[in-house]
Specification:
Blueprint: H1 3-16, E1 31-37, E2 40-46, E3 53-59, H2 62-76, H3 89-94, H4 101-113, H5 118-121
Antiparallel strand pairs: 1-2, 2-3
């Protein structure tokens, strides 16, 4: 469980749970993360009004863990196969060879040596 998921869990506990003794709302400072075993997360909620300690066992959904794993992978995985081409453009460019590094260098040299208004080319 990463910090973002823990913060979300604490926020949900604050919103959905009240002290069973006096009905007070829990504040962020009243909720303590005790630990985790497999899909179970243990939290202590201590009421600021009546000091009643509550042990909450929260079952984490496997979807939450899968989502967190996918988010971590997405940060480090390049987006292969995505394109900003509109329909029909892909076929036109599929027949073309990839742009070479030499072509990029040639374009750079050309633009440096010629005062071309690039906006007018588009």
């Amino acid at each position: 469980m990463n910090g973002k998921n823990l913060q979300e869990l604490i926020k949900n506990l604050q919103v959905f749970y009240k002290c069973p003794s006096c009905g007070s709302n829990y504040q962020h400072e009243d909720i303590t993360f005790l630990g985790r075993v497999d899909e179970h997360c243990f939290m202590q909620l201590t009421c600021v009004e009546c000091s009643l300690p509550i042990l909450a066992t929260v079952l984490l959904g496997s979807n939450l863990e899968k989502q967190a794993k996918l988010e971590r992978q997405a940060r480090y995985t390049p987006k292969v196969g995505r394109s900003d081409l509109v329909r029909g453009e892909k076929k036109r460019f599929d027949k073309k060879e990839p742009i070479t590094s030499q072509e990029i260098i040639d374009l750079h040299i050309y633009l440096n040596n010629n005062s071309v208004d690039i906006q007018s080319l588009f």
